[in-house]
Amino acid sequence: MRTTFTQLENFGHSLYAPSYLIQPKSADEIYSAFKLAKKQGLTVTARGAGRSYNDAALNGGGIVLDMSAMNQILDWQPATGVVRCEPGVTLEMLWQKVEPQGWWPPVVSGTMKTTLGGCLGANIHGKNNFKMGTIGEHVTEFTAVLPTGAEITCSPKKNKDLFYAMIGGYGMLGIFTSVTMQMKRIHSGLVTVDAWPVQNLSRQLASLQDGAPKYDYIVGWLDGIAGGKSLGRGQIHAARYVHEGEDPNPQETMKIKNQILPPRIFGVFPKGLLHYFMSPFMNNFGTWGINTAKYIASLRTHTFRQPHAAFHFLLDYVPDWELSYGKTGLIQYQSFMPKETAETAWTEMLKFSHKNRLPSYLGVTKRHRPDPFLLTHAVDGFSLAMDFKVTDANRKRLAAMLQEFDQIVIANGGRFYFAKNSETSADTALAFYGEETVKKFKKLKKRCDPNGLLESDLHRRIFG
Amino acid sequence: MSDLTKPAPATPLNTRRRGIIVGASEGIGAALARKLAKEGYTLALLARQQDKLNLLCAEINQFTGEARAFAYPHDVANYKEVPALLQRIVADLGGLDVFVFMAGVNYPPGGIDKYNFENDRIMIEINLIGAMAWLSPVAEMFQNAKAGQIVGIGSVAGDRGRVGNPGYNTSKGAVAIYLEALRNRLTRHGVNVLTVKPGFVKTEMLKAAQGGTPFAIEPEKAADDIYKAMKKRKQTMYTHFIWTYIMLIIRHIPSFIFRRLSF
């Protein structure tokens, strides 16, 4: 087992942590890493694709298990749509395996680069959270190695407490070694998308709420810069599956080559270079220009068909887009608010960000429903994700503003999601999880990991 | 509700750079510890005297209101202990951005016609081999991480071999050469190596100096200068600044004259 000392970064390039990197290839090797850690007095964290915006896959000065070598699809049943994968399998590998045979992962993130282990650890949601819930709700079984060396199998019936705690447990109880999931049947490689503008936050949220029951997916873009009467304006994209028979040639549209995003714009311009052209606009004025142009373009209500991959994996449309935020990177602040308080809370937050001249350059809204997992981030309401550029000059002001945001979110019964937020403190985490939940989680942690070997920078931050 | 036994977590908006200072209990090391802590660093402070270290940590944590300084008693001559201790500190701090080696001793032989091998040996063991024992694993770590900053302490005394203290001159001259070699190795990996060459600084060590002590500065002034040079990622710096010019002249005094001088 080779150990390399290396510097790891988060996805936003705003945090870095040197670690001893080990690439296990089996459950036995994961256990060996635990033994090594115990001997050396170090801690261990699993890392999938490193796509978290925060410190979830970092363990400064400790051991990090790079799970990307455990990336085999172990079993695929095209008749029933049940797939069993190793944790390093990415959503990209998964959809490319199942889609040509008429299946699609029931829940996907905005990028296809994430691994299943990471997706389960964070219990990710997609643009269909209001309908299909989180990814964990489609897992029928998983296996994991605990720091004690025990190999366990969990399902909604077997080891139920661990099933609902390890999914969404950010890898703090054990390391996944296999995941069994049910795929969703599709009858075309395309989805039908409706797009329409929304003039302000109130209409944005009403559109999400009223639109959700009529669609399979719904997502809003929120212009973080527009103020006054236009505060919270944007555009809604809502999509439906194409029903059986609607697509005359599903075999063709479900081919991978008809799904993947073209690497060049107009067939000539390589998209890999696009982020260089975006970076001059990554300031308050440039983004105001872009957002205004984008909003004007969105005023036309229209309907179109789009491949699944193009609709879902918007973040992959511009490769390395996060680099356009420059050397000091970006952070994302995502809050989940109950439907009753969302408008008040976000109005206050958006106004506050304008007053501080620290507007968000990208806002994304979604509709959500609660789920049964222990460390859940879900609410019956909405989420708003805001990207902020980090610079050496704005760090202190931005930090102070986000602390204010945290208070607004907590006061209005909101929650946070730890694949995203990087500033949330232990006190805030305790406040929204509730003492009962944290106590329960710590008790399970003691049982699975009596020596406290599993620790990430995230764990140290939110659970002290 | 901040836990004072563990360093506070680093976040993108509160980056909390992490540093190690070897030789932090007094003099420039202690002054630099106070300075870096004020600038937001989380620090591991190393020296032989645990009680002095504890006092310094308590003082720093008191005025910053956070757990920013942690004491690790260590004897620089205990070379074998270094790799494991380094690993432990990096795990405790959650990473490492800056490594500072400030430990040093000065035992003048007590006259330009006196010789004392035992003292010379101790100076080499602490000032040179002690530095190498730390700098070598730290350099390897930073090289692999492709980031980091090393601050080593030479001296104006290391620029020429002089009549007063051959052993000290050798230890400081050699450590400057070692730092230069590391710089040439590491710059291509994105690591900065800063060689600090203090003139006279009002510390315990100054009491050993014979003769006059022109341009003597307070350790706090030296620490401020070093911090500025660190921020600019400089290669070599003198403190007080005037030594840059004095040493420029002294370095160029031809041997047939230098042999006849008595300083």
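The two ends of chain B are 57 Å apart (CA to CA).
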